[in-house]
Write a structure and sequence with these properties.
Structural class: mainly alpha
Distance between the termini: 82 Å
Number of helices: 6
Strand content: under 5%
Radius of gyration: 27 Å
Number of strands: 0
Helix content: over 70%
Largest sheet: none
Order of helices and strands: HHHHHH
Shape: elongated
């Protein structure tokens, strides 16, 4: 009887070990799928941004005018689009080597809208504009 119990325990341990191995493989596969999905999303976002920047190339002043138009309405609901446009303008300036000109326009923009604290916080938190301007500072 003791032998049967011992065999049963060994079989249980073996099944548990097999389940654990399957679980680890399943978890690893899930992590791989998630990593691939993140990479794909990043590539798509970059492709979309490249397309927006290419469209801005033809008339960047129209983008600045759109930013002014969006900010002329009251409230904060347009701030995400404003930050997005400014990020695209920063990317265009970086791509075309016009970072200094962008920095001047951006500085004027910040001075003109310095009382909009929520907008300024969003701009600082967002990153693309800050990254472009920090490259200028390191030159």
């Amino acid at each position: 009887m003791a032998e049967i119990r011992e065999e049963s325990r060994e079989e249980s341990r073996a099944r548990a070990k097999t389940r654990k191995g399957h679980e680890q493989r399943r978890k690893a596969l899930q992590e791989e799928k998630e990593a691939e999905a993140r990479k794909r999303a990043e590539r798509e976002a970059q492709r979309a941004r490249d397309q927006r920047v290419a469209e801005l190339q033809h008339d960047p002043e129209a983008a600045w005018a759109r930013v002014a138009e969006l900010l002329s309405s009251r409230g904060t609901r347009h701030y995400p689009e404003v930050v997005h446009l400014l990020g695209d303008l920063a990317a265009l300036a970086e791509r075309d080597g016009a970072v200094r000109a962008f920095a001047q326009s951006y500085d004027q923009f910040v001075v003109a809208h310095r009382t909009k604290k929520a907008l300024i916080r969003k701009l600082k938190a967002e990153g693309p504009v800050t990254a472009t301007l920090s490259k200028l500072a390191s030159d």
